[in-house]
Write a structure and sequence with these properties.
The protein has 144 residues and is mainly alpha-helical. The protein has one domain. 62% of the residues lie in helices and 0% in strands. α1 packs across α2, α2 runs antiparallel to α3 and α4 packs antiparallel against α5.
């Protein structure tokens, strides 16, 4: 079983070191998939700030979604069932993230664009922690 607290703490530590939200979440789990930290942070370098600081989809969620692709993604472009399964997992992660935070959109989470479902502006470090927890819990549920 994955130690949820340890993964969340690692993601928070990476965020505190200056990595963007996507980098922090993705890199916290990357070695579990045989990806070294340097490669992990390069892969996700453009996803911070809601994708290239455009305040679109939250980088913390994107890190978790990318991890779900490593866990569930199919390498066969014709595998429609595999694609649909991977989409469903990423959608389920998004639903969990949205349930906790009110949105998956950076501008809404950061208070730049009003959304009545977002009850409070959530610091990026907390979004990173929550995304890492959601992903670790997903892995534990899958293995249970």
């Amino acid at each position: 079983m994955i130690d949820v607290d340890k993964k969340a703490q690692l993601a928070c530590q990476l965020k505190a070191e200056g990595y963007n939200c996507a980098q922090a979440v993705f890199a916290a789990f990357a070695e579990d998939y045989g990806i070294d930290k340097a490669t992990a942070v390069r892969i996700t370098a453009g996803l911070g700030g809601g994708v290239a600081k455009m305040k679109n989809v939250c980088g913390a969620y994107l890190g978790a979604a990318m991890l779900s692709g490593l866990e569930e993604g199919s390498v066969d472009p014709g595998d429609m069932a595999g694609k649909e399964h991977a989409y469903k997992v990423a959608q389920d992660l998004a639903a969990r993230f949205k349930e906790q935070n009110g949105s998956t959109i950076c501008a809404e989470l950061r208070g730049v664009k009003p959304n009545p479902d977002v009850k409070e502006i959530v610091p990026c470090s907390m979004l990173v922690e929550r995304a890492a927890r959601i992903y670790a819990e997903y892995l534990n549920e899958k293995k249970a």
